[in-house]
Write a structure and sequence with these properties.
Blueprint lengths: L9 H15 L22 H5 L25 H8 L7 E2 L3 H8 L3 E5 L2 E8 L2 E7 L5 E5 L2 E3 L5 E7 L3 E10 L4 E4 L21 H4 L1 H4 E2 L5 E2 L4 E2 L5 E2 L3 H5 L3 H9 L15 H9 L5 E3 L14 E3 L21 H5 L2 H4 L4 H4 L11 H9 L11 H5 L31 H5 L2 E4 L3 E4 L8 H7 L4 H5 L5 H12 L6 H13 L6 H10 L3 H10 L10 H6 L6 H10 L1 H5 L3 H7 L8 H10 L9 H12 L4 H13 L3 H14 L4 H13 L3 H14 L4 H14 L4 H15 L4 H14 L2 H14 L5 H13 L2 H14 L4 H11 L2
Antiparallel strand pairs: 1-6, 2-3, 3-4, 4-5, 6-7, 7-8, 8-9, 10-13, 11-12, 14-15, 16-17
Helix pairs in contact: 1-28, 1-30, 16-18, 19-20, 20-21, 21-23, 23-26, 26-27, 28-29, 29-30, 30-31, 31-32, 32-33, 33-34, 34-35, 34-36, 35-36, 36-37, 36-38, 37-38
């Protein structure tokens, strides 16, 4: 399956990033079948105090420093009351009849896709009747409720300490059941079905819906012993353990003394505490605590070659708030979450534009002044037609219809709906730009509202209103990143400029991410290496990851440059370096132990098994690697990427027929991925059971059709056509390969050999000289040129 200098699998890169994404999506804790606690009666106004339980068994001294949210109420009544009805307090709870009867009474059935579900009550318990893993209807009892408004999912206990989150969700606003996946109709056995590992609460939900959670996965028994201080996001989830504070206050009641147990967080620590759950990220440890560095416990998903984010940084997939905020000018000018949000209700401190204008009003010294009427060109609540502030009553502020066009957040924080009902604001404070929509299909806020109009219609108004002001760094940056994602080499120069000079570290990191395909270029490698000294840990992490292909190529200078990153001050960088240098990693070193802990923590998911298999594979133990890849496929049989990686391992073990079978399944699952067709062609060639014409060439032709810039596929297609005797077609394919990758000396050398067979000596000599220009030590090209010169 291999070919000379075949670069590291692109899907392997996706798998690694996918592992980070997977481990960062959280859905609430269970110990075996014992987690269902009887629904309490009592006043629903005190739902947090009555419905949230503490499950801290068998944790030794781990939880002894926590006092529980209820212990805060006596001294901090206002803050407690604000929190008590917040999304944090209700992030997870036990069922409460006053809140949940409406979802289950009366009994009803509904069909979504091909699956019918019945909801009912039985002896005081809420139940589902739905298809189990074997396809037959089974009865499931609800244990806890996940989230509150605009949707609630139910948690169902299963053997092995598991809780599973239902895909059927309840919307308390409309009193409707709906499927969070919409019309996807996921089937039992699929990773993302509600009974699959993709909806496993212990791994995917619990950490962010509870306070001080320990997943406690046991790989030997594939089971969990998950515990937490309390269900829901309690006071100590943000403030840290406060039992010492309670004891000190009790001992010094009435005395005017400074409490030594209070350690206030800096604004940056506050943001990073929020970011732990409000970001798409990988969890590196089980130990994040309020005030700890985000980068010691997480690796962040940012703009890269995937479609997780739009090139301008807008959220695309379910990316949460922190990443976009990190890339904003607001964050990089010192704005933090609590400047806009009440820290206990988490609601905005002021409604609508009044919040924005508390800093941006004309005459303010806090931020650039903005007249909302002349700036927005829309009606603005609280201002008359001439832009004069009126004495509007904030309590009457309910924007709708035409009023929404003058809302700052509707233009600069556009909303995207997730899970069918949950509209979320983008926190990148982006600039609506219809030109980017025309060029690269990047959405703009104008057409989000005016969905019946074209991008040209919006662009006309934007140009009239703002003119040349639209040609700002924001647009230029988005254009650069979009071109880089398309594989346009003209993006290299502006990417290098971003990497070295962008004032926002986030965008330096994004540039490093997108330079990865060109990491081997002579002007890119030293630029990346120099940024290993960047003061920002996210930049260092992405630089390490982007240099990884050169390590695969055996570049000793790059490996030497990366070696110090194993001792980087931030764990996110160390973990990235561990992954890249895994072949030679000392597993007894602090870096090695960090990496093993990370792998063990991920072992309950298919991508975690893939990462463990990759660890064994790169360290030369292919036999021990194979079962992990096979387990990953077993746990997620619908993943083309995982099957592709298994095929690579099977090929390395000489099991070529099995590799072909996996690659055939891969292209069936993902028919539009050029790399998969390319590798299937190489696998067919290795089996030697079919001719070039029958299978190899068609797969290579599909690969270059899907990706016209796929130089390796063009190169191998040229070789295959040459072997078939179609020399003219071979030259054409090799010219395409050279156009896609003008720096690979193998390609003009191969073209020279084909031209020589055609008898086109002059052209063959020119091609051979081109190969030598690219690599003066290319012995085969030099020998060929001497032969051609002697003719």
């Amino acid at each position: 399956m291999s070919c000379p200098r075949k670069k590291a699998s692109a899907s392997a890169k996706r798998i690694w990033r996918g592992l980070l994404i997977l481990l960062g999506i959280s859905l609430g804790a269970g110990i075996g079948w014992t987690v269902c606690i009887a629904a309490p009666s009592g006043d629903p106004q005190e739902i947090s105090a009555t419905a949230n339980s503490s499950t801290n068994a068998n944790q030794g001294d781990l939880y002894t420093t926590y006092g529980g949210s209820a212990s805060c109420r006596e001294c901090h009544r206002q803050e407690y009351d604000d929190w008590n009805h917040s999304h944090h307090a209700l992030a997870e709870r036990n069922p409460v009849p006053a809140m949940d009867d409406a979802a289950f009474i009366p009994q009803r059935s509904f069909t979504i896709g091909t699956q019918t579900t019945t909801v009912l009550t039985n002896d005081g318990h809420y139940q589902f009747i739905a298809a189990g893993l074997d396809g037959t209807n089974q009865t499931f009892t609800v244990c806890r409720i996940l989230a509150d408004n605009p949707l609630r999912q139910m948690l169902i206990p299963f053997p092995g300490g598991r809780l599973q989150a239902t895909e059927d969700a309840w919307d308390p606003r409309s009193n409707q059941w709906f499927d969070v996946y919409g019309n996807e109709d996921r089937k039992p056995g699929e990773w993302g079905h509600w009974l699959g590992r993709g909806m496993n609460w212990n791994s995917m939900c619990a950490a962010c819906h509870n306070t001080r959670l320990q997943k406690n996965y046991d790989a030997a028994t594939d089971s969990y012993h998950t515990t937490m201080v309390e269900t829901g996001v309690g006071c100590e989830a943000c403030h840290g353990p406060m039992k010492d504070h309670n004891l000190w206050q009790e001992a010094h009641k009435g005395q005017s003394l400074k409490d030594p147990t209070i350690h206030k967080l800096t604004p940056e620590q506050m943001v990073e505490t929020c970011a732990g759950c409000h970001s798409r990220r990988a969890e590196l440890t089980d130990e994040p605590a309020p005030g700890a560095s985000y980068w010691d416990h997480y690796q962040l998903s940012i703009v890269d070659q995937s479609e997780s984010f739009h090139p301008d940084g807008q959220i695309h997939d379910e990316d949460y708030e922190f990443t976009a905020f990190l890339g904003s000018r607001m964050y990089n000018h010192g704005v933090v979450c609590m400047d806009c949000h009440n820290p206990h209700t988490m609601k905005p401190k002021l409604p609508g534009n009044f919040l924005c204008l508390s800093c941006h009003a004309v005459g303010s010294t806090k931020a650039p002044n903005i007249d909302p009427v002349t700036h927005s060109h829309h009606f603005v609540f609280g201002y008359d037609a001439k832009g004069v502030l009126t004495n509007a009553d904030l309590n009457s502020y309910h924007p709708s219809g035409d009023q929404m066009g003058g809302e700052c957040i509707n233009c600069h924080m556009p909303q995207t709906v997730y899970m069918q009902r949950h509209w979320r604001h983008d926190h990148g404070f982006t600039i609506p730009d219809p030109l980017l929509t025309k060029q690269f299909a990047i959405p703009n806020a104008c057409n989000r509202c005016h969905a019946d109009q074209s991008a040209d219609w919006s662009l006309k108004y934007v140009q009239e209103w703002y003119g040349t002001n639209m040609n700002r760094p924001y647009r230029q940056r988005a254009e650069t990143l979009a071109r880089a994602r398309q594989g346009d080499a003209d993006a290299i120069k502006p990417l290098l400029a971003m990497l070295q000079t962008d004032p926002i570290p986030y965008w330096q990191a994004a540039a490093a991410n997108l330079l990865q395909p060109w990491a081997e270029a002579t002007n890119v490698t030293p630029a990346l290496i120099s940024e290993l000294a960047n003061t920002n840990p996210l930049v260092r992490q992405t630089v390490v990851e982007s240099l990884s292909p050169l390590v695969d190529f055996g570049r000793e200078d790059v490996m030497a440059a990366l070696q110090p990153e194993l001792m980087d001050s931030s764990r996110n960088v160390r973990i990235a370096a561990d992954h890249v240098l895994v072949a030679t990693l000392d597993t007894n070193s602090p870096a090695g132990l960090d990496y093993l802990n990370f792998l063990n923590r991920a072992a309950d998911q298919p991508l975690g098994q893939l990462a463990i298999g990759d660890f064994e594979f790169k360290r030369g133990d292919i036999t021990n690697a194979l079962p992990h890849f096979q387990t990953a496929v077993k746990w997620d049989p619908g993943s083309a990427e995982i099957r592709h990686e298994l095929a690579i391992v099977l090929n390395a073990l000489g099991q070529n027929e099995e590799a072909v079978a996996q690659l055939q399944a891969t292209v069936k699952l993902s028919p539009n991925e050029a790399e998969f067709h390319y590798d299937l062609a190489l696998a067919y060639n290795e089996t030697g059971e079919t001719s070039e014409t029958e299978r190899v060439i068609p797969e290579l032709e599909l690969a270059v059709k899907l990706n016209p810039q796929y130089s390796q596929a063009w190169y191998n297609l040229g070789l295959a056509r040459s072997a078939q005797g179609d020399l003219a077609a071979a030259v054409g394919a090799l010219l395409h390969a050279e156009s896609a990758d003008p720096n690979d000396p193998r390609i003009p050398y191969a073209r020279a050999t084909v031209l020589a067979r055609q008898g086109n000596i002059d052209a063959a000599q020119t091609a051979a000289r081109r190969a030598l220009d690219l690599n003066p030590n290319f012995t085969a090209a030099a020998d060929l040129l001497r032969q051609l010169n002697s003719q």
